[in-house]
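Exercise 4. Each item below gives a protein and its sequence. For each, produce the structure-token representation.

Item: Transcriptional regulator WhiB (Rhodococcus koreensis).
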Amino acid sequence: MPDHSHHHIDRNWQRRASCRGTDTEVFFSPDGERGRVRAQREHTAKLICQDCPVLTECRAHALTAESHGIWGGMSESERARHTRRTRHAAARPRERVPASNSSPLRIRTPTA
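Answer:
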């Protein structure tokens, strides 16, 4: 887990979270949980997240600091996939597209 102790982290958003007071077992899987049981638990957690007033703050926190559980309406695998896609997109060279009102430049060489 990353060490964020040197950063000032404002976690006041957690006080306004819809999950506050909910049993943490809804958001974190027990060892060996698989299949339909896990999918149902995650679905239940995501239902709590979907209308949460701090969903954006929670998701931003989760994408940089949480590796387990449902955070910001995303599971561990969904956060990992999002992070991979974001890194991949950032690493891709951007294609230069000419402005729509300009035509390509043509260089002519003088002929004799």
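Check: The chain has one domain: 12-90.
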